[in-house]
Each structure stands twice: as structure tokens, then as C-alpha cells.
Design brief:
717 residues, Beta-clip-like, 31 strands, eight-stranded mixed β-sheet, 19% strand
Length: 717
């Protein structure tokens, strides 16, 4: 794999009346002029002193894993060692990706990352153009031997492979060399076993490789969400038994994944887009950004390659988080005035002058070299579908076009950077969130003529189901009667046997009858999130004494998210949500009229298509699968159910789920649930989110068998 680092630069800084920048750092004339102007015109701001760079911040997460002496709580992750702090990460060699069965890096890999190294070879060809730019730049050196940079060269140039300078690969660290090296433009010495953070860019991926990276990111986030939900449930049980202080499940999940080497993009510092992360992706927790490699800082808003890890001693910024935490920020969407970090107290008030060091200097250097940065917006979200009060949305790549030193609103000096969004990208996720919020308040605020119905369920659901078509004149979903719940034949209820229920008065508790039916544990946490997929789930039914707010009554309560059936050029009719749907949350039931095998055969002879539940793939097994963390993890097999031998007729009666598209990488899973009867032969088909689904993103299922031409069930076209 070809490694690259920031470009060498031997320019000396020009002397200025106010040494705002550290010695040895070349500064664009515009930045110097504006800094001088801002300082001389602001009489209430003292002149900044000579800057002495501080030590680089420690970027590694040191979140402790809580332990407990309580023997009454069975840990979910028994074989993961509890550590107060995490050691420095070890990057596996290019031929040994993380193990798929345990935390031991010596184990052979299989499953999730088996092709990761093959696709990573694409980094080799990412900088052919960059090498040409650097070659032209090297030919433009003046008599004083100062390097005149090509404006398009950027700061990313190739570094010779180790065999060209007598070094060799260190077997324990794919990014570490032994020996010394010299690259064009200056000397670079790599100490023994020194871990180099490569600065690379990925582009021109094939469709196959794009899908591969997307699947890696999807499954990594699936593991993270599963761990987070399970860790939260474990802490809930501890709090009920003791005075245990509740810990954050998102921190514990990220720590466990880091311990097992499951964080992505740790051996390279990627400039530009992260493969597999799409513009508009929403993250409910800050630590998830670190897990996928989108933003590596757990607290700081500027992520960058530190000067101590750069070949020429200059930091380079790679991403920023815009969350409105600084009073001098201005956000107009495509144009951002971003304030540097530092100088704030614990109440987010500016009380000191900012210094040009760390992330502030990295942003200036990125502007100087023309390197784009990723922008993640932190937004307040008041949706009812998730408990998160703040979400993080990836909004794409921006270029830093200008920077200057100015007087902030509090009277202290701040560094400001003007960012412009790169053209040709997908619509900003933050803009989609705002549009969805407007539609929730006023369904007719956007293209009212294209809204064919405000509620195709005719108030049969808890929330309205909108029908939208801006493609053609089809209104086919209006031709069917809406069916909010599955229509079972009477024989299903007659063959359920003696009805029994729990005796819980204030809500189900550990060890009650309904918990025993589910294998001794409840299927949901206190927030109604699915803990792990099972062959079948028993919810409390009409013969239980527990109230409607019982934690074991989730899917039977019906639709909560505001869904929309919409017309798509790619998939025909599809389904999307106006709400943000949290991973593991219940979405809706897949309804229809139950037909026995004999009835289904008669109807099929007449040419009508049916939905066969036994053809749905067992995606439920993926939710809660922590085999990469816990080598003793066993796929749930209790309660077991016999093969399903019935069909759903949706030819006349159907609900919103019937319009969901097929995908081999779905974001929705099918979970069988029983609550109103005990006949294992005829469960309800309940749909849950496999990942955090942003508003206006299409929902998809893995039907198992689909139409060969459209990739979707023929009856739903």
C-alpha cells in the first residue's frame, strides 16, 4: 500500500509587526493582512504574544469500563477484560484484519472485514494527479531554494515505499518503519516502531467497492448500536438492584469496539470523503463518529493530523463539527464562518484570546494547501422517535477559502475561517432534517399539488400516513383498503390453548411469567428498543394484568413514526419516514389477510401474488449479534417456532409496509411477535429498524425472493 504524508515546505515566514503565527510556518498574505488590520483596529484587544505551541492533545479515547461487585447481575460481555484506560491502539498488518470471533488479534479473520484489505489497495492510485502537481511544484523553486507551491498541489504527496530507502515493514504495525527515510523537499526520520498517521485521499471507487465499503460501515454501526443498547439494558438492571450510577452505553460500546480493534480507518488519516459514509448519514452519538473514522476527536470540534505526526511538522485539519457552540459562528448552509477553538470557560463564554495552535493552525494550513475538510453538524432534534436531544449529520466536504484574526462578540480575539461547500455533492443532511421538520408541522408546505393524500390510513393508525408523488400521475395506493392489523382466521384463536398471562400490576418485573416465556429476559429496554433479535417474541397480551405502559408492550401499540408512501424513479412506490428512527426501534407491522396453504394455492392459480413469511431472511439474528466482541456469544434459538406455512394476501387489503422496497443490505428487519394469541404457527410480522434511519431516507427489507426485473415484489409495483 502506498503511504502519503503532508508535503514538505521549507519557506520561512515573513516578518510582521505582530507574530501571530509560529515560526517556520508560511502564511498566505491575506491572512497576515487581515490579522494585522484586526489587531490594529481593535483597541480593546491586546496584541497577542509570541505563540509557543502546546503539547498535542491526546486523541485516544480513555473511557473506563465500569465494573461492579454485584453478583446478581449477569454481565452481557463476560469475556471482555475491564480496563481503567485503553492502551495505544495497535494497527494490524495489511494481511491480518481484526478477528471476526474474538478480541485476540492473533486469530484469523473472517466475516465482516475479510475483503477490507483487498479494497484498501485502492489507496495506491489515489494520488497519481497529486504526484504530477508535486513534480511541477518542485520545478518552480527560486534561487533561494524556497519551494513555490503549485496552487493545486495541496499538501498530500507520495512517500517512497520502505524498500527504496533501506527500511522494512515492522510486523507489529503496518504503519511503522525501522530505519530512516528522506522524502523530496526535506528530511524525514522515522524512529523504530514509530506509528505514522498516513494522510490519504480515496476517490474514483468502482460501484462494487462503494457497496463493499458501505456494507463495512453498515455492519460496524450495527455492532455499535447492538452493543450500546445491550450495555444500556445492563446498566438499567444494575440501577434497579443497587445504587449503581448509570453509565453511558455509547461510551462503553465504543470502548469495547476499540479494545477489539473494530474502529474503522485507524491506520490512515483520510482527507476528503470517508468510503462507506454517505452525505446525510445521521449519528445519534458523538462516539459513533470516532468508530467509523468520520471525526477522530472525542471532544474537540477540529480533527487534524498533529504536527508531531506530520513529515514536515505542520498540522493538517481533516474534519470539523459545527454545533453552534461558539457565539461568533455563522452558518448559512453552503457558507460557514467557523470560529477556532480555545479561550472559553465552562459556560461556553469567550474569556481569553484564541491562539494559533493545534486545530486552529491546522485549519489555516489546510486552507494554505487547498485541502478540503469534512463538515459534521451537531443539531438539536426534538423528534418523538428517539430519546437523543442532539444528533450529528454529515453534510459533505467544504473548502477553507479565507481565515483572519478578529474581535469576537465578547471582546476577545478569535480566529475565523470561511468555508464554502464543494459543488456536486448530495443534498445536505441538515437541510433534509429541516424540511422533514417543516413537513411534520405542515404536510402541505412542500409541493402541495403532489401530496395525493394526507392520510391513506383514514385515521386507522396512531399517526397519519402521507401519500406523495412528484414523478407521474399514479395514485395506486388509494385503490386499496388500509389494514392496520393482520386479519387472522378464527381458527388461530381457537387453537391457542389455555390463555395465561402475568400477574404484574404496575408493569412487568424480572422473573415474571412473560419474562420466562421469552427465555428469562425482556425483549426490550425501558425505552422500548429491541435488545436482540429472536426467533419469536412474546409480548404481554389481553390476559395479562400489567398496564398499557408495560415495557413488554411495544409492537402491539402500532405505528409511531410518521411514514410516507412516495413515488420513486428507481423503486416504484417506496416508504420513508418524516421522523428520525432510532436503531432498534419499532416501525410498524407488515399486515395482510392470513391464508392457509390450501387457500394460497387457490389464489395463486388465479394469478395473484402473495407474501410468504417463511421467505423473509433471518435478519433478526444480526441485531444484537456481538460475536466479534464476545467469542462465547450464541445466536438465540429460544423460543423456537415451527416452519411457517401461511401466506399474507395483500391484493385488496394492505398497509404502508407493503410498499417497502427490497434490498440485500436492508435497514429494516422482520421480527415475529405474539401478543393476542399463543399460536406459534401464525405470528405477527413486526418491523424494526436495523440502524438509525434519517428522515426522508427510503426504508428497505430483505424479502428473500423478489421480482427479477424490478428487484421488488411484483404485487407492490
Amino acid at each position: 500500500m502506498e503511504s502519503v504524508t503532508s508535503a514538505q515546505n521549507t519557506n520561512q515566514p515573513k516578518e510582521t509587526p505582530f507574530p501571530l503565527f509560529p515560526p517556520g510556518i508560511p502564511i498566505p498574505t491575506t491572512a497576515i493582512e487581515k490579522a494585522v488590520t484586526a489587531t490594529t483596529t481593535a483597541t480593546n484587544v491586546p496584541t497577542p504574544f509570541l505563540i509557543i505551541p502546546k503539547h498535542e492533545p491526546v486523541e485516544e479515547c480513555t473511557t473506563p469500563i465500569p465494573t461492579s461487585n454485584n453478583q446478581d447481575v449477569k454481565p452481557i460481555f463476560p469475556n471482555v477484560p475491564h480496563r481503567e484506560t485503553l492502551p495505544a491502539p495497535v494497527t494490524a498488518p495489511a494481511t491480518a484484519p481484526p478477528s471476526a470471533t474474538s478480541c485476540d488479534p492473533s486469530d484469523n479473520a473472517n466475516g465482516l472485514y475479510e475483503e477490507f484489505n483487498r479494497v484498501s489497495q485502492l489507496f495506491r492510485t489515489a494520488f497519481a494527479e497529486q504526484q504530477q502537481h508535486q513534480l511541477r511544484a518542485s520545478q518552480q523553486m527560486d534561487s533561494s531554494n524556497d519551494l513555490v507551491l503549485d496552487p493545486n498541489s495541496g499538501a498530500i504527496v507520495p512517500v517512497p515505499p520502505p524498500q527504496e530507502y533501506g527500511g522494512h515493514w515492522n510486523g507489529n504495525d503496518a504503519a511503522g518503519y525501522e530505519g530512516s527515510a528522506s522524502s523530496s523537499g526535506g528530511n524525514m526520520t522515522l524512529a523504530k516502531r514509530n506509528r505514522l498517521k498516513e494522510l490519504v485521499r480515496v476517490k474514483d471507487l468502482s460501484l462494487k467497492d462503494q457497496r463493499h465499503y458501505r456494507e463495512v460501515v453498515r455492519r460496524t454501526r450495527l455492532i455499535y448500536d447492538s452493543l450500546r443498547v445491550l450495555a444500556t439494558a445492563e446498566e438499567e438492571r444494575r440501577m434497579m438492584l443497587t445504587d449503581w450510577r448509570k453509565a453511558r452505553g455509547d461510551l462503553r460500546a465504543s470502548t469495547l469496539m476499540k479494545t477489539c480493534g473494530l474502529w474503522l480507518n485507524r491506520d490512515k488519516r483520510i482527507v476528503g470523503a470517508i468510503p462507506g459514509v454517505f452525505v446525510g448519514d445521521v449519528f445519534l452519538y458523538r462516539m459513533e463518529l470516532c468508530v467509523v473514522g468520520l471525526h477522530g476527536q472525542t471532544q474537540a470540534g477540529i480533527d487534524y493530523l498533529p504536527a508531531s505526526m506530520s513529515s514536515n511538522g505542520e498540522p493538517i485539519a481533516t474534519s470539523v463539527i459545527v454545533s453552534g457552540g461558539y457565539e461568533d459562528d455563522m452558518d448559512d448552509g453552503d457558507v460557514i464562518i467557523y470560529s477556532g477553538h480555545g479561550g472559553q470557560d465552562k459556560h461556553s463564554r469567550q474569556v481569553f484570546h484564541q491562539k494559533l495552535e493545534g486545530g486552529n493552525l491546522a485549519l489555516e494550513r489546510s486552507m494554505h494547501y487547498g485541502i478540503e475538510v469534512r463538515v459534521i453538524r451537531g443539531l438539536r432534534y426534538d423528534g418523538t422517535a428517539t430519546a437523543a436531544s442532539k444528533v450529528y449529520v454529515y453534510d459533505g466536504l467544504y473548502r477553507i477559502m479565507d481565515c483572519w484574526f478578529d474581535v469576537g462578540k465578547s471582546g476577545f480575539g478569535v480566529y475565523k475561517y470561511k468555508l464554502f461547500r464543494v459543488d456536486g455533492q448530495a443534498k445536505m443532511g441538515s437541510a433534509v432534517l429541516k424540511e422533514a421538520c417543516m413537513l411534520r408541522k405542515d404536510p402541505l408546505c412542500f409541493k402541495p399539488v403532489c401530496c395525493l393524500s394526507l392520510d391513506i390510513s383514514h385515521r386507522r393508525e396512531n399517526v397519519a400516513v402521507r401519500l406523495f408523488n412528484d414523478i407521474d400521475k399514479s395514485n395506486e395506493p388509494l385503490c386499496y383498503e388500509y389494514l392496520p392489523k393482520t386479519n387472522f382466521p378464527p381458527i388461530v384463536f381457537h387453537q391457542t390453548g389455555k390463555a395465561m398471562g402475568c400477574e404484574c400490576v404496575d408493569g412487568c418485573v424480572e422473573g415474571c411469567f412473560c419474562a420466562m416465556k421469552n427465555g428469562g429476559e425482556f425483549p426490550y429496554n425501558q425505552s422500548g428498543i429491541l435488545l436482540r433479535g429472536k426467533p419469536i417474541i412474546f409480548e404481554c397480551g389481553p390476559f395479562c394484568r400489567c398496564p398499557p405502559h408495560c415495557r413488554n408492550r411495544v409492537a402491539q401499540k402500532g405505528l409511531k413514526s410518521r411514514l410516507e408512501v412516495f413515488r420513486s424513479r428507481e423503486t416504484g412506490w417506496g416508504v420513508r419516514s418524516l421522523d428520525l428512527i432510532q436503531a432498534g426501534a419499532f416501525i410498524c407491522e407488515y399486515t395482510g389477510v392470513i391464508l392457509t396453504r390450501q387457500q394460497a394455492q387457490i389464489l395463486t392459480m388465479n394469478g395473484d401474488a402473495l407474501i410468504y413469511p417463511n421467505r423473509f431472511t433471518d435478519r433478526w439474528a444480526e441485531w444484537g449479534d456481538i460475536s466479534l466482541i464476545n467469542s462465547n456469544y450464541v445466536r438465540p434459538s429460544f423460543p423456537s417456532i415451527p416452519p411457517l406455512d401461511f401466506a399474507l394476501d395483500v391484493s385488496r387489503l394492505r398497509n404502508v409496509a407493503c410498499y417497502m422496497s427490497h434490498s440485500t443490505s436492508p435497514n429494516v428487519l422482520v421480527q415475529f411477535v405474539l401478543y393476542d394469541h399463543n399460536n406459534l404457527m401464525f405470528p405477527h410480522l413486526m418491523l424494526f429498524a436495523m440502524e438509525s434511519i434519517p428522515p426522508m431516507r427510503e426504508l428497505s427489507l430483505d424479502y428473500g425472493v423478489t421480482d427479477d426485473w424490478t428487484g421488488k415484489l411484483a404485487i407492490c409495483n
